[in-house]
Design goal:
Blueprint (H helix, E strand, L loop, with lengths): L14 E3 L6 E3 L4 H10 L6 E4 L7 H7 L3 E5 L2 H10 L8 E5 L13 E7 L7 H14 E12 L10 H10 L6 E2 L2 H4 L11 E2 L3 H11 L2 E8 L16 E7 L2
Parallel strand pairs: 3-4, 3-6, 4-5, 6-7
Antiparallel strand pairs: 1-2, 7-11, 8-9, 10-11
Helix pairs in contact: 1-2, 4-7
């Protein structure tokens, strides 16, 4: 019997609140999560789900036959995830807690795929580039990196959009970095850390290429229909990418 403290919170408008106020987990896989799931069974090695939360991508990947390393900053998330996994798949699952990028490490050329879904928005800009370089090093040749994050066009941060556009015009390196989330999104701030990094195509592609990746696909992604209305703006609320190590 799972105790109340180890129960996954109920989904609300396609989002499930995390226990550590580090954003939300999607209640269902979206495009780039699903691409990771579909690739996982044929990946050239174990796959890593960074910021796995309650397992929206991990559990379907296990059912596809993948060996999955589920990572999360919050160990209670990992215990909830483990309790949700059918016994049949537990021997394919490894749990690893730690914060990306400084508390997480793997052998070079040891992984077949890596997913970061809505998690690297919570690292500092200089940590983003380090994260991409570490993921590149961990992947085997032919391994793939699947990225999903918020964009500056997320409705939640519509108050920030003019600031982003001004920074973009000035050519700033990190135009989507918000240092004071409560100022721009006071209603959502209680479920978010004080800073967040929203990426556009230019910043994401530059960071991936600098790490050594070849970009297979990249694009803006609309919020799911079930997302709260205040998250929606113009169909560019999320940004995702699939990149591979040559």
């Amino acid at each position: 019997m799972i105790s109340d403290i180890l129960k996954e919170p109920e989904a609300k408008n396609a989002l499930i609140i995390t226990l550590n106020s580090m954003g939300y987990m999607l209640s269902q896989p979206e495009k780039y999560n699903q691409a990771f799931i579909d690739f996982s069974a044929s990946a050239p090695g174990p796959v890593l789900d960074i910021g796995a939360a309650y397992g929206v991508a991990t559990i379907p990947a296990l059912k596809k036959g993948a060996h999955v390393i589920a990572n999360d900053l919050e160990e209670k998330h990992l215990q909830i995830l483990k309790n949700k996994v059918p016994l049949l798949y537990l021997n394919q699952l490894d749990l690893k807690s730690g914060r990306m990028p400084n508390e997480l490490d793997f052998e070079e050329n040891s992984l077949g795929a890596v997913l970061t879904s809505r998690v690297l928005a919570f690292v500092l800009p200089e940590e983003l580039e380090l994260s991409f370089k570490k993921i590149f090093r961990w992947l085997k040749s032919g391994g793939k990196f699947f990225f999903l994050g918020g964009s500056p066009y997320m409705g939640t941060f519509r108050k920030f959009l003019p600031t982003y556009l001004k920074r973009k015009m000035k050519g700033e390196k990190w135009p989507g970095f918000i240092e004071n989330v409560p100022f721009f999104a006071p209603e959502q701030a209680r479920n978010l850390p004080c800073s967040i990094h929203l990426l556009d195509k230019e910043v994401l592609s530059r960071s991936l290429i600098n790490a050594g990746f070849i970009i297979e696909e990249m694009g803006f992604n609309s919020a799911l229909e079930e997302h709260p209305q205040d998250m929606k703006l113009d169909g560019r609320e999320q940004i995702g990418a699939i990149a591979f190590k040559p």
